[in-house]
Amino acid sequence: MNDVDIRTDDDRRVTVVAVLDVPPEGVQAFQRYESRVLPLLARHDGWLDRRLRSADGTTEVHVLSFPSDEAYRGYLADSERVGSEPLLAGADVGRRVLELLVDVGPPLPVRAEIVHLNLPALEALAAGDLAAAGPLTPVPVTPYLVGSECRGVWRMRAAQVAADPVSAAWVTGLVWDPDGQRTVGRAGFHGPPDAAGMVEVGYSIDPAHRRRGHAQAVLRVLLARAVREPAVRTVRASVRPDNTASRDLVLAHGFRQVGEQDDPEDGLEIVYEVPAGS
User: What is the pTM of this model?
Assistant: First the structure.
């Protein structure tokens, strides 16, 4: 049985708390069910705010959001058209939701994948050509990724890959959210490790998807990659002094300030480093 508590905030955002029973046949069957539902959620601009699972694995609680009641109703209608049982449909059962929230475990971590790109895709993104970039990338490209905040990065990465094709496996790619089935930003290293074994991380999440754990998830991916690469000894992050969110994120992952630098585009940056694998 799936129970739902629906709330509308002052900004008209609809928050849905869904209590879901994992079927007796196991988590794999539940994941197949999710694979039908989550793409519909993304199609209507909904997102997974929080996901928790009970210690015995029989119950999950999903906290999801839609930008408006219209988006939520559109999701329900779409579910009916494709013949998929709506994940989020039902009466207000707030009391049962609160009771079950006491029994579930900690939130399941947000997941992220970095999809690396070839030179033609990087060049199309650098040119701001959304139509040309789409067929060249393995996952969808959004307007944010061809906007002014991203084009300069793509130009630098395209030049790097043109000069050194091996760097394509290291430099900035697209951040893919496998649970929400959507592209949420860009991330990667600034290049392969230098002679001292240092790599520098860079990431930027689309403003439409910020404050949902994607930056933390992609930083974990980058740090895990650094551990797997024998040539990497140090991971660096350069952060503007006013970017307190990124500062707090890197500090939480063991980075420590080692200096400052003057970036030609971003101005003063604080330089943080952490040994790979620490």
Answer: 0.69
